[in-house]
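User: Sequence for Glutamate--tRNA ligase below. Tokens please.
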Amino acid sequence: MEGSVRVRFAPSPTGLLHIGGLRTALYNYLFAKGHRDGVFVLRIEDTDQARYVEGAENDIVESLEWAGLNVDEGPGKGGEFGPYRQSERKERYEQYAEQLVEQGHAYYAFDTPVELEDMRERLKKSGNPSPKYDAITRMSMKNSLTLPREEVDRILEEGEEYVIRLKVPRRETIRFEDEIRGFVSFESKGLDDQVLLKSDGMPTYHLANVVDDHLMEITDVIRGEEWLSSAPKHILMYEYFGWEPPRMAHLPLIMSPSGGKLSKRKAESEGIPINTRDYIEQEFEPEALVNFLAYLGWSPGDDSELHTMDELIELFALDRVSKGGAVFDYKKLIWYNEHYLREKPAEQLYPRVKAIAEEHGLSPDEAYLKEIIPLMKDRVSKIEDFVTMGRFFFEDPEEYEEQALKKWKDNSAELLGAYVGKLKEMDEEEFEAGKLKDKIKEVIGEYDVGFGPLMMPLRVAVSGMGYGPDLTPTIELLGKETTIRRIETAIKRLG
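Assistant: Structure tokens for Glutamate--tRNA ligase:
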């Protein structure tokens, strides 16, 4: 590909960064980094002041950093195409909107909100289900196309409120090539005369977007499918300005497991965290979320599923992004998380597990905790499980899980009693996994039962649960005194 690639991630700071936004950022990043000298720009589209949320920009920046998507240019980062917040670029948009008016491709509209509402009501009554301000209705409205020139000049001079609207042609087919969907065409009669400049002098998304993509020399616009219907308006503006439009790619929707788009409401009902912040707070492994999101609408074309960021950069291509929606499979995300947790050495996990333990009111000894981590690693799905599932390493179980109690049979107390007898005869130094297993074999040999009838109630007695890490190394780590105490308590309580 000739020339260097420049892409942008351009979120609006109207709330926390949505998981779909993070995927869009990721695809832009992978695409840029997969090309020599590719540049990944962050642009904050904060022109909608009414919907601006304090702290949202900060959340976007922190979320991208957490996920390892390092921005080359953006707010606080600098770059020769700044400023990178649209609210700081206001004058530029005004000048370009006026240019379109002068060229006859846009016009001033003076209609009040009441007049616009009347127009919609009138059209609805005459059988138009989705009325809009367009090539037909504009001629019965109050704008610089219907009013005499002197009247227009007078209104502008007196400082009355107005907006600038794009003059969309009545009968035109607008075609462009989408990098993912191939050729796409729209009929202009389906488009409204989009407001470009609002009455407060702020641009709408559409004008600011086109002007900034041109001025920032963006070569490829990779964004969500919801912007596909806006693309023809953008293509028209590029044509009117006489600019070369960037290549465009519209990514597939993220779907809910129960069907339909993954909305906030659906995500909540299905237990899927919807904002990147949730994943940070729940201490997901960032590599797991990145790997999972990469595959949410793209695949390298083979059976591989696990890739580092560098490998994803190497493999990623837009022609392998699907057109159809991608279903958010939370179980698959957990599978990725388990994988990346297991890959990390205990040394690296220790400070995080220690912090979680302290949050839970525990203050474990460093050496002890470093022995628990490798033992638990193959059993946990998320880092907090080291503490929540492994709580029995720090304190005796106060109660026994209901499911686990089903494993407690009529002969359980007798078998455990026999095992305790053998443990009491052991010296501290011989209290290790291999010998503990031998003692289990002795008991089941003497009572002529299988492993299950002793192992199951033994696990319940020492941990309170019916599952967990390898049993004999666990008992070794708990130590002789603790193990005997817990078994005797269980015999007393469960009989």
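The chain has five domains: 6-82+206-251, 90-197, 264-341, 344-393, 402-494.
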